[in-house]
Amino acid sequence: MIRLLAPARPAYLRVVRVSAWYDLIVTAGFATPWTYALVHEALSSLGNTLRLGVLPELDPMQTLYANLMGSVVVVWAVLRIVRPLPVHGLLDGIARTLFAAWQAYALAHGATQLLWLFLGVEVAFGLVQLVPWWRNRHTDLVDDYAGPA
């Protein structure tokens, strides 16, 4: 049986909090239809300027999904800022692994190359938050459930 032991260093909690601040700053604009329209325009302009591609035209479903993602990530970020716990870093690392996988999938299917900027940050924060858990794993040599011999 493999057990994960929580990273105990204060530096780990600082990483959890820094990643939360990043999420809050980057995703707050996605949380409402009005701010998302501004973010959409800014990202499309940036993509056009850098020749990385623009975002597709705004539509109600895209806005809905952006707002849902933005709202959930903002709440999750505030929790990690106000009360960072080691388990929050583990869960955030897992979430970033999923986000990175879906961003890579989108890139492989023709999404704007702007995603590379976000993918790099997701992978970096994911690794920084998951590696300490991996290093602290402990393998029991005796099965806890075996009972008396």
Oligomer: single chain
State the major sheet: 2 strands, antiparallel
- DSSP E strands, number: 2
Radius of gyration: 19 Å
Strand content: under 5%
Distance between the termini: 18 Å
Morphology call: elongated
Helix content: 55-70%
Strand order of the largest sheet: 1-2
H/E element string? EHHHHHE
What is the count of DSSP helices, taking H or I runs of 4+ residues? 5
**What are the low-pLDDT stretches, counting only 5+ consecutive residues below 50?**
141-147
Let me know the average pLDDT.
91
Describe the overall structure.
By secondary structure, the chain is mainly α. It has helices at 10-27, 33-49, 60-82, 86-108, 115-135; strands spanning 2-4, 137-139. Strands 1-2 form a two-stranded antiparallel sheet. It is elongated, with a radius of gyration of 19 Å.
